[in-house]
Design a protein that fits this description.
single chain, 262 residues, mainly alpha, two-stranded antiparallel sheet, phospholipid binding, translation initiation factor binding
């Protein structure tokens, strides 16, 4: 509910503003320790990324309520946004976007971690689980860049707005594609913020979509084995439908004005 989201936002904002906040039966304040504020900014940013790789990866629509709160907090407390990006880029290098190359002397285990895989006791997480986490984090990022906290002053620009999404898309299409990962990330990104990018960039956006269809999808196909075609097929269908309709659908779960009256 919109009212519940406002409560969450107010509590986080109050905490970061140095006001005393009630939690689990006790009152806490960042002023209680000289590094209290820095600690809270760090843990809060980390928590938002965890929501992306956990909550959003399983419930895709949850990207929007989480993102709108973070967007508002980022506007008022830029430090949280900076640390959020640092956590996000470390956990999901594809959010830069960046495909780390393996350097000489780097162990397989260490390289897997650089690519974003979780490695425990020399066991690497399964590909499906890895892709799900990356998907959740990219969807959260794609939601953040288009959303603003509706009760903010909106005097300045969005602290990390659509221009960053446009840059991400351009940089992504300049990278050599990876099997599995590239098709999934592009589809997630376009599903979540394609509509917003279309409205902002118009003809330039459609040129990019046409480039994806004619040039980039064949490059993804070239590195994709027959057993990895699922996500690529969904990306192809999505791009084709959008180009035929000359419209990108609104993402599922987007927060409408009526949401804020609940």
């Amino acid at each position: 509910a919109g009212s519940k989201l406002r409560e969450v936002f107010d509590k986080i904002n109050n905490l970061l503003s140095g006001k005393p906040v009630q939690t689990e039966g006790q009152t806490v304040s960042v002023t209680q320790h000289p590094q209290g504020l820095e600690f809270v900014c760090y843990k809060l940013a980390e928590k938002f990324v965890k929501h992306g790789e956990g909550e959003v990866s399983f419930h895709r629509d949850s990207a929007f309520p989480i993102a709108v709160v973070l967007s508002g907090i980022w506007e008022l407390h830029p430090r949280v946004g900076d640390i959020f990006l640092a956590h996000l880029h470390k956990k999901c290098p594809y959010s830069v976007p960046f495909y780390p190359a393996r350097k000489e002397g780097t162990s397989v285990e260490e390289y897997q971690r650089m690519l974003g895989y979780e490695v425990h006791d020399s066991k690497v997480e399964e590909q499906d689980h890895f892709l799900k986490r990356m998907s959740g984090m990219i969807r959260l990022y794609a939601a953040i860049i288009q959303l603003r906290w509706p009760y903010g002053s909106k005097q300045g620009a969005h602290p990390h707005g659509l221009s960053y999404g446009w840059r991400w898309l351009a940089q992504m299409l300049n990278l050599e594609p990876l099997a599995d990962v590239t098709a999934m990330l592009l589809l997630d990104f376009l599903e979540v913020c394609g509509n917003a990018l279309m409205k902002q960039y118009g003809i330039q956006f459609w040129k990019t979509m046409f480039f994806i269809q004619k040039s980039y999808i064949p490059r993804i196909e070239a590195v994709t084995s027959s057993g990895q075609m699922g996500c690529l097929s969904r990306l192809k269908n999505f791009v084709q439908k959008c180009l035929q309709a000359e419209e990108i659908p609104l993402p599922k779960g987007i927060l409408t004005p009526s949401f804020w009256r609940t």
